[in-house]
Design a protein that fits this description.
The chain is about 55% helix and about 0% strand. The protein has about 525 residues and is an all-alpha fold.
Length: about 525
């Protein structure tokens, strides 16, 4: 079986009965007894407000809601950029006014579904829970099931399972009803429903056994179920979610049958030990799902554990030395060990994120052999101030110099400096030089004359226009930061940074800066130099 299934395949659910949420007209649903003062309007749904780091409630502006939903539905997530992913999560999670043309609950469902596909299982769960149960639409019922399974928390759907069964014929809801009955203490009802599900063939094999295992947990261990994976050839979201919920160990080979977002769900699963989560957590940190602080905290717990002899413990010990050893040279040795160990580019970038704050403990000095990686490490976590301290000591034209040129907010960059960077570039294709020019031009750090001259010399066409460039600049002109961030992700639907063109980077950076997201624009431009 292929190890690179498409997201739709990777997210298939129990017997493929819980599929991609469809466009369904809302129906009249049973009312819940929610006091008036506690009711929340679905027209202003979301997880975070401005005070918690969200965007403005009008971040999507007057953009057509149907257009936005189409973009979200067709977006092939995850995208290659850590900083685009972080910005898109912020846009999707923000408490925003529902744009014209869409139902507020449906718009929340579409955002949650994209968050699931991005690997943001915890945020997706919070998104569906931000809508009152009596406001659910058929689309939101479907997405709530996906968010519950991705987060390994089947109880998420319990408040709405009865209403969902009344309007949905999907077999997963039959089993969810039994699981929720057991979790609420109604073990007799749960047992009856499981038996009925078996007779009706609503599910069979491991899909049914995992549901029975959840029911067993709710009945205080009665009727314990043993899960055997020998004849299972792929991992579905149903199998993943219920296995995580019940502590059933998933064979590592099955993770090769799914897309990368499943590892990001795994990284956030509190049911797993820190040691079990660590490899997935590093990948999630590279993607932006986990922060530098979160991954360092995870390894700190591993370091204090008694589980000796694991590879994760070795990483934890090196990380402690990188952060806390009194000797600068010892800290650098520890960081080099962490940086040099991985062989895959994504894992290598994850280690830069891991050491970001450790890198700030190294005082700048001239001719430092690790300057480029120290600067890249700090900037992977957005630590611009400490990175800029290296500016007087960094070698002109080096990769570290290029990253700092993108971060510096004052003054213009001369063409002669870019030519020096070009002369020192080690990549034969010249991609890094093109990305540096695209980033500087998008940030307005090059004069128009230098931009034109460099673009012509490097065969870059910043003036090219298509439906995407027109859409992202129109959203920027109309001051719609969330729409711009969504379109930035649309412009990065490629497996890795090598598929991102300089022209796309230019338009993304330029539009983000125009809507006031200059910090994120700088970090995306820097990421291009760090990862190519």
């Amino acid at each position: 079986m292929s190890s690179t299934l498409a997201p739709a395949d990777a997210l298939a659910s129990v017997s493929d009965s819980v599929g991609t949420p469809q466009e369904i007209d809302p129906k009249l649903l049973a009312a819940f007894d929610i006091p008036g003062y506690a009711r929340r309007s679905p027209s202003l749904a979301g997880v975070v407000g401005v005070a918690e780091g969200g965007m403005s409630p009008r971040a999507f502006g007057s953009a057509d809601g149907r257009f936005l939903q189409t973009l979200m539905r067709k977006l092939n997530a995850p995208v290659p950029s850590r900083w685009v992913s972080i910005g898109l999560r912020q846009a999707l999670a923000t408490q925003v006014v529902a744009p014209p043309g869409v139902n507020g609950a449906d718009f929340a469902a579409e955002r949650a579904w994209l968050l699931v596909r991005m690997g943001e299982s915890a945020v997706a769960r919070a998104m569906v829970q931000s809508i009152d149960p009596n406001r659910y639409t058929p689309k939101l019922y479907q997405v709530s099931m996906q968010a519950a399974l991705a987060s390994g928390d089947p109880a998420v759907v319990c408040p709405v399972v009865g209403a969902a069964r009344a309007i949905s014929s999907e077999r997963a809801w039959i089993l969810a009803d039994a699981m929720c009955a057991s979790l609420s203490g109604s073990s007799t009802k749960a047992s009856t429903q499981i038996k009925a599900a078996r007779r009706s063939a609503a599910a069979r094999g491991i899909d049914l056994l995992l549901a029975e295992k959840v029911v067993g947990l709710g009945s205080k261990g009665q009727g314990a179920v043993t899960i055997e994976w020998e004849n299972v050839d792929r991992l579905t979201i149903w199998r993943y979610g219920l296995a995580i919920a019940t502590g059933a160990e998933i064979p590592p080979a099955l993770f090769g049958t799914v897309a990368s977002q499943v590892q990001y769900w795994r990284a956030q699963a509190p049911q797993l030990t820190e040691t079990a989560r660590a490899p997935a957590a590093e990948l999630a940190a590279a993607q932006g799902v986990l922060s530098n602080a979160a991954i360092v905290d995870l390894y700190g717990k591993i370091d204090s554990d008694d589980d000796q002899g694991t590879a994760e413990l070795g990483v934890a010990r090196d990380l402690r030395a990188a952060y806390a050893d009194p000797s600068r040279d010892a800290r650098l040795v520890a960081m080099r060990t962490l940086w040099d160990e991985p062989k895959q580019p994504r894992a290598q970038y994850a280690r830069l994120v891991l050491t970001a704050r450790a890198a700030t403990t190294i005082a700048p000095y001239r001719d430092a052999p690790d300057a480029d990686r120290l600067i890249a490490s700090m900037l992977s976590a957005g630590l611009e101030g400490p990175a800029l301290r290296w500016q007087p000591d960094v070698v002109r034209g080096s990769n570290g110099w290029g990253m700092l040129a993108l971060v510096e907010t004052g003054g213009m960059i001369r063409r002669s400096d870019v030519d020096t960077y070009r002369s020192r570039a080690t990549d034969i294709s010249g991609v890094k030089v093109k990305m540096l020019v695209a980033g500087l031009a998008g940030l307005g750090r090059l004069s128009a004359r230098d931009t034109d001259g460099l673009a012509n010399g490097l065969s870059i066409n910043f003036a090219s226009s298509n439906s995407w460039t027109r859409a992202i600049h129109r959203a920027a002109e109309q001051r719609q930061p969330a729409t711009v961030m969504l379109l930035a992700a649309v412009g990065m639907q490629t497996p890795n940074w090598h598929g991102v063109s300089p022209e796309a980077l230019y338009h993304i950076v330029s539009a983000l800066q125009q809507v006031g997201l200059e910090g994120q624009a700088r970090m995306i431009a820097v990421e291009a130099l760090a990862r190519l």
